[in-house]
């Protein structure tokens, strides 16, 4: 239960988010199998384990874990296109007439209706952690679209969800660029060996550096030429590493082996206990790390009450 990516959202005011209230709300938007004629379904499922009877909210040390599952039927475009063209060719040959757009669209709709029950079903789960005391919702995704799908469904379940993406006083790219220029970060953060540099000119290119000494003269020359850092690999207190981009998305989040070993020891032999221990330790670590990261990046632009 270690998040691999992180998008941070800020609750703009306090709302009831105790486990019982949240559980009742998520039950109104429960995940369900995708019917034969529906392209997709979306809803909340048990975040730990696979049994359907498990709760949709897992609470640990004041933190709440939830999960949303999307099921969608996949019809490859090439299959639909080829079968549609076969049908059109058959009509035009047998009836000696041209098939125009309106009829073509109708044929496609009928074909989709026929093929849909036989389509492959793809399942994807997105996890999110809620920290009511800190006022955060942390989504395990690098895709703002997937995060918004979860948050909008949570908003429907609760009736209200006053939340917005984390906002900083200083543009993250400016701070990341300064760190590479100065060859050091701050607040127990350290530079690793990967970054992306973007030309500031219109239609300017970008350079991705991996396995590169970021203090090298080559990198400094790119910065002197006016490029800015839009992604940077960082470590924090030997506890975790990640790649931070200019939109405040933490990618390839990896917790240190010692933390993972500690969770294994605390969790024992049972799978659910293992997941609970890793979630709890992850959140306790993030509750220390995120304030340090935010302060290092110039501080949070706090939302007004309302």
From TrEMBL:
InterPro entries: RdgC. Pfam families: RdgC. GO terms for cellular component: bacterial nucleoid; cytoplasm. The keyword Iron-sulfur does not apply. The keyword ATP-binding does not apply. Its main location: cytoplasm. GO terms for biological process: DNA recombination; regulation of DNA recombination. Keywords: Cytoplasm, DNA recombination. Signal peptide: none annotated. One of its GO terms (molecular function) is double-stranded DNA binding. It is found in: Cytoplasm, Nucleoid. May be involved in recombination. Belongs to the RdgC family. NCBIfam families: PRK00321.1-2, PRK00321.1-3, PRK00321.1-5. This is Recombination-associated protein RdgC. It comes from Azomonas agilis.
